[in-house]
């Protein structure tokens, strides 16, 4: 009951990581270890090991959490940098595409012009040949 009252008075969060709640539970556990140690030394030592193991586990989780946050931030920055690089590349490729489309249009126009010229020359050659055969 005292623990619940202390949790409410100090406005400890019920979920998530809460340093207030952690501190109060550690104090409660330390007191429990003290009382058990008075009655049975071996059990007290066992509870001390449990407490120390719990602290090491919590420290490992905290380190893992912090490194995952740092990793996430690094990846977000890399993604943002990669995005701007890709946007630049897309703009360059669009320019290249426009230039190539312009060249294709020019070459098609030249091909049509050459085709017309060839048709005209063939027609003139046929006329010359007809005239030559008529004479």
UniProtKB/TrEMBL annotation:
It holds the Pfam family Ax_dynein_light. The keyword Disulfide bond does not apply. One of its GO terms (molecular function) is dynein heavy chain binding. Residues 83-131 form a coiled coil. It comes from the Eukaryota. InterPro entries: Axonemal_dynein_light_chain. Keywords: Coiled coil, Dynein, Motor protein. Belongs to the inner dynein arm light chain family. PANTHER family: AXONEMAL DYNEIN LIGHT INTERMEDIATE POLYPEPTIDE 1, AXONEMAL INNER ARM DYNEIN LIGHT CHAIN 28. This is Uncharacterized protein. It comes from Graphocephala atropunctata.
């Amino acid at each position: 009951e005292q623990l619940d009252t202390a949790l409410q008075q100090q406005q400890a969060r019920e979920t998530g990581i809460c340093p207030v709640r952690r501190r109060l539970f550690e104090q409660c556990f330390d007191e429990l270890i003290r009382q058990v140690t008075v009655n049975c030394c071996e059990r007290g030592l066992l509870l001390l090991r449990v407490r120390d193991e719990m602290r090491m586990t919590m420290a490992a989780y905290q380190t893992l959490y912090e490194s995952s946050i740092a990793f996430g931030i690094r990846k977000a920055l890399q993604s943002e940098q990669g995005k701007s690089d890709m946007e630049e590349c897309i703009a360059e490729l669009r320019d290249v595409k426009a230039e190539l489309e312009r060249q294709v249009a020019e070459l098609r126009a030249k091909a049509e012009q050459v085709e017309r010229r060839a048709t005209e020359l063939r027609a003139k050659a046929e006329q010359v040949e007809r005239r030559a055969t008529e004479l």
